[in-house]
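Deliverable D2.4 — example input (structure tokens):
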């Protein structure tokens, strides 16, 4: 999908490319690649950087081209990582502003609609990059709310019964928080590099707002990570304690059952015993076995093994 958007006219969508407009490319196909490489003359290796899912946030200059990689949060179809981060490449030169993302995402689409509703006009490339980073920080906070809701839901399920599926859900969310923390730190370092790479002066008020928003998102991620780690440690201790209780009860049952078995084994030997001639010998043995068994049960109950 390819869009042409006017940065100086409240993000109005254009029918075709004109100099200084913004070209937004999402999930590019062969036609998009041809346009980017042949019409805009963007180097192939620059587009390859945006296709690397593990590409770190960075900014570098190559001739007239400036490549800025920003990581943003996104939903994933992979059940092992339902929430993760993806790279967005901001490619600029004197007359070109291009964003390329190889994966579906909500951040850029929301950025466009927000710009239209607020009549935002972007006058230089550094301010445009800052606004993208600012939007990503906002969406990091929104995704953290989703993660928090999922954690609370899993905790409620675990309070009823501890299931492996609920524990695995918490582990997946913990993995997402690790991705978030790494991406936010990279975006934070990217802000400092913007001052040195772009020749135009960024909006200082916007720059301060972006730094505050990034720091808030980073602190929130750290808080959620600590809470989630503590939750997993707590449930690990609960599981271990439950296993110990089960083993203790199984051992208690074994001891109780061993008492009548031991008595029956003694009187089942092929040797002469004192009460073998008594007509009530069987009753005496049963009564004795019951008394010793009850005594063993009461003793184990007293030491809280039952």
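Example output (designed residues):
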């Amino acid at each position: 999908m390819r869009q042409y958007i006017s940065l100086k006219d409240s993000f109005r969508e254009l029918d075709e490319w004109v100099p200084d407009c913004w070209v937004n490319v999402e999930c590019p196909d062969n036609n998009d690649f041809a346009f980017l490489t042949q019409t805009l003359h963007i180097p192939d290796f620059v587009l390859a950087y945006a296709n690397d899912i593990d590409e770190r946030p960075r900014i570098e200059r190559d001739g007239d081209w400036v490549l800025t990689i920003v990581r943003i949060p996104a939903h994933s179809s992979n059940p092992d990582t339902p929430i993760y981060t993806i790279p967005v490449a901001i490619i600029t030169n004197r007359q070109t502003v291009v964003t390329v993302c190889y994966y579906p995402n909500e951040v850029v689409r929301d950025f466009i609609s927000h710009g239209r509703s607020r009549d935002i006009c972007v006058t230089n490339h550094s301010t445009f990059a800052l606004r993208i980073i600012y939007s990503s920080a906002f969406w990091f906070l929104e995704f953290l709310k989703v993660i928090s809701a999922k954690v609370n839901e899993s905790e409620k399920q675990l309070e009823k019964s501890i299931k492996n599926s609920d524990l695995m859900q918490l582990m997946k969310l913990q993995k997402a928080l690790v991705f978030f923390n790494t991406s936010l730190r990279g975006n934070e370092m990217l802000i400092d590099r913007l001052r040195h790479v772009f020749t135009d002066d960024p909006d200082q008020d916007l720059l301060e707002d972006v730094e505050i928003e990034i720091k808030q998102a980073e602190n929130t991620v750290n808080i959620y990570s600590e809470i989630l780690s503590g939750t997993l440690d707590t449930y690990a201790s609960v599981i271990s304690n439950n296993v110990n209780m089960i083993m203790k009860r199984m051992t208690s049952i074994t001891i109780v059952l061993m008492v009548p078995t031991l008595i029956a084994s003694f009187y089942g030997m092929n040797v002469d015993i004192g009460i073998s001639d008594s007509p009530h010998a069987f009753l005496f043995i049963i009564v004795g076995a019951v008394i010793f068994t009850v005594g063993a049960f009461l003793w184990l109950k007293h030491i809280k093994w039952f």
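The first helix runs from residue 30 to 39.
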